[in-house]
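subagent[fold] <- orchestrator: predict structure for attached chain, return tokens only, no commentary.
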Amino acid sequence: MTLTLTPLIEFPLVKPGDNLVEIIIHSLQNSQITLQDDDVLVLAQKIISKAENRLVDLNHVKASEKAKQLAIEVQKDPRLIELILRESQTILRTRPGTIIVEHRLGFICANAGIDHSNVAGEGNGQEEWVLLLPENPDQSAQQIREGLEKHFGLRLGVMIIDSHGRAWRLGTAGVAIGIAGLPGLVDLRGKDDLFGYTLRITQVGAADELAAAASLLMGQAAEGTPVIHVRGFPYPLREGSLKELIRPKDQDLFR
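subagent[fold] -> orchestrator:
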């Protein structure tokens, strides 16, 4: 068993309205990668959000009274807090510098996934741009998958990932936020282990494991490699979605 991850080279800076399928096809050619059935492409959330014009200039955001009060508590810009509130279902924890929320997409994350880093808009120096997560990452992944499969005539998987912190460990790690054509969760319950014992509770977060591996190559700063080609994913491809990975609230012991 061999798992190979290869960054796509010469990937341009993405702008609102760009056709990511065409850009990925061109970058695959530049990288001299010939796709095969069951290959997977892992995409950084930022290029999806930029292509879908999820950029917001804070100068155009009016903070509510709730946002202003919370901004004092967490020592953040009240306009940013307003966006966090709009993107969240519930505020779970706060402390100076950080707000932990249940995002409207269902997962738990800091600051609703809103990002300042590697974000720039067009215009004058007075603009203060931030980037929101995609509206529907599963749908975004599916559209790119369909475009690539139509072009190449192959069965492929596409995943969108972001960097999240974890409640019980330091450091960020790549996690899946959009899935198309591959499993999010692999259920091994009922299968035998090496010594013949039947597994009863083991479920593998396969999409998150792959996301973490791809994130190592994408990097967090100025690497410029937002798409990773994957060959040798060790589980059969199938239809999948982010919902597989969201822990139900009644099983969430950390909330």
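orchestrator: received. Logging for downstream: The mean pLDDT is 91. The CA atoms of residues 12 and 149 lie 22 Å apart.
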